[in-house]
Amino acid sequence: MSQQITLRDAMRTLNLTRDGLADRLGVSKRAMDSWLLPDDSNEHRSMPTVVERFIAEILHSGPKSTQSVQSRSSVAGSAHLLSVEQFSRDSLEDLFRLADQMQPIARRQKICRVLEGAVLANLFFEASTRTRISFGSAFCRLGGSVCDTTGFTFSSMAKGESIYDTSRVVSGYVDAMVVRHPDLGAVAEFAQATHIPVVNGGDGPGEHPTQALLDLYTIEQEFSRLNKLIDGSHIALVGDLKHGRAVHSLAKLLGQYRGLKISLVAPAALALPDTIANLAARNGNVIESFDSLADGLAGADVVYATRVQKERMGGEVIEGYSADFQLNLAAVEAWCKPDVVLMHPLPRDSRPGANDLSTDLNHDPRLAIFRQTDNGIPVRMAIFAQLMGVADQIPHSLREPAWRHPHQVGPDDAGFHTLD
Ligand code: ASP
Ligand code: CP
Predict the structure, then answer these.
(1) Contact 111, 187 (CB under 8 A)
(2) What ranges do the domains of the chain cover?
(3) pLDDT, tens digit, for every residue of 60-115?
């Protein structure tokens, strides 16, 4: 296991920031920073063997163990991934530990074939770019193959076929299914008709569990760099909190953390449903509602903006979602902390008048949206590895790729961004 993965695992298991871990180990913060840098960085240093042994001792005597990556075929104890409500804090941390192990594959530094021979069906009955392609890519990067169907028009559902029949038929062809459907509960219906794993890729206004998992993983990763912990932090959720399924799943997951302040920033017509706010308010979390960005963003460590889900409104007029709600450079400079992390599940609506997250933040390093989308791959690989029962094989199955990969993915990335 690489040094960075071991150190991230130690921070997560002990719930310590990087400075907190340096104190616990009795080493300088500078040394810790250099150990957390990627191996190919000039400033990277190897940690001494004595420190490595000390970490192993602490972890094995601590409350949770690094050996907890499961080999059973389940995610958070279930054969399907339908809702974030199936996760506990421990099962979240197990998944993120495994996602860390997937990073070298996601960054094209290693290849892996543990799913060789397995076939995934990606059944998307609603528009998607990220979820469909990243699930497909994650399955392929583990050695599997993917069959896709998009929209109702090109599926026999257009001829009146039921979910039960569709699910049973497809299960005879493939080994796992990812389903996105416009109706609440429809993905759970697919799961009832099959014994192969079904993953919810978004069910109408219900949930988007894998989006929220990759969001939380991204927050953890950004906070590791900023020397912060999720427990005790301040998260602002902004925009269409009523219809957005990604923010519904994320708000529920935040309820697994302790001592959070969660600011809900939305006009009354787009407020978060109370049942979801109540789940976010577990563990002493404090929820406050605001109807203006100026008040709602102050002091937040993370601002999670969302798109107005017009496709779920059936022509309903939204009162109060004016240009004042747009998260742009001026708003961030005026109201946010200098080290804020700016997130969005995407897509953002970049058409004039949409008032969504502005493109004028594109060169701002606080904008984490593409680090967030990139994290869709390791998190979805970890989900497949758990559901297909191959999680324990990953460390021994990594090989060098024979092909060249880019050092930098996008023009605004600092390098192929790092695990630090
Ligand atoms: N892509 C996310 C979803 O499908 C968020 C959005 O579309 O605004 O829920
Ligand atoms: N975030 C998200 O689900 O994106 P897509 O709708 O493009 O899949």
Answers:
(1) no
(2) 1-66, 119-203, 209-372
(3) 775 554 444 445 689 999 999 999 999 999 999 999 999 999 999 999 999 999 99
Pocket of ligand 2 contains residue 134 by CB under 6 Å: no
Same fold, 119-203 and 209-372: yes
Architecture of domain 119-203: 3-Layer(aba) Sandwich (3.40)
| CA dihedral (90, 91, 94, 95) positive or negative | negative
In ligand 2, the atom with minimum distance to the C-alpha of 127 is: 6
With respect to CATH, is domain 209-372 assigned 1.20.120.530? Answer: no
Q: Token pair for residue 335? A: 């109201």
Q: Ligand 2: does its nearest atom lie under 6 Å from the Cβ of 376?
A: no
Query: What is residue 352's predicted lDDT score, i.e. its pLDDT?
Result: 86
**Token couple for 356:** 């969504």
Residue 65, pLDDT score? 46
Instruction: State the DSSP code for 416.
Output: S
**Substitution candidate for ligand 1 out of 125, 240, 242, 245 with most atoms within 8 A of CB:** 245
Residue 57: alpha-carbon gap to chain centroid: 30
Residue 341 backbone dihedrals phi, psi, to 5 degrees: -105, 125
Q: What pLDDT score was predicted for residue 176?
A: 98
Question: What is the model's pLDDT at position 399?
Answer: 96
346 lines ligand 2 (CB under 6 A): yes
124 Cα–ligand 2 center, Å: 11
Inter-axis angle of helices 376-387 and 89-106, to 10 degrees?
120
- Closest ligand to C-alpha of residue 311 is 1
State if residue 202 touches ligand 1 by the CB under 6 angstroms criterion. yes
SS3 116: coil
Those residues of the chain that have pLDDT short of 50 are 65-70, 415-420
The pLDDT, as a whole number, for residue 128 is: 97
Q: What is the pLDDT of residues 269-295, one digit of tens each?
A: 999 999 999 999 999 999 999 999 999
**Residue ID of nearest Cα to ligand 1 atom 7:** 347
